[in-house]
Amino acid sequence: RRFDAFVSLWITFGGGTRLSVGSDVRPTLTVLPPSREELQKGTATLVCLADKGFPSDWSLAWKVDGSSSSWEESRSPGVLGGGALYSWSSTLRLPADQWAKVGSVTCEATQGSQTALSETLRRDQCSQ
Length: 128
Prior knowledge:
By secondary structure, the protein is an alpha+beta fold. It is built from three helices and nine strands; from the N terminus they run αβαββββββαββ. It is 16% helix and 41% strand. The strands form two sheets. Strands 1, 2, 5, 6 and 7 form a five-stranded antiparallel β-sheet that branches. The protein has a four-stranded antiparallel β-sheet with strand order 4-3-8-9, with no helix packed on it. β6 (79-80) and β7 (86-95) form a beta hairpin.
């Protein structure tokens, strides 16, 4: 009986212990460039989408020209999607005049002892 087995596991591990079933899944990263309209208003907003990863505690960080970013960053909490996998996003904002001097931006995803995963966007690949 399934319910009895669940109750038995709950009693064994306790209500606050997390039992993870399954293995880590590396998310797919996509870096979206700033829009032309936004650049004309003086701001460059880049978005890193991390899609279909597991577990939910992957961290996203930005590098600008290979160094950790000092610009404003924000991150969305993980959203559980189909297949019990999570998706996240991180946003990097910098002045348009600084974006014009940037060679590349990299979004890096890390989780525990996993090897970091990254996606790089070169500014010269963007149409402006």
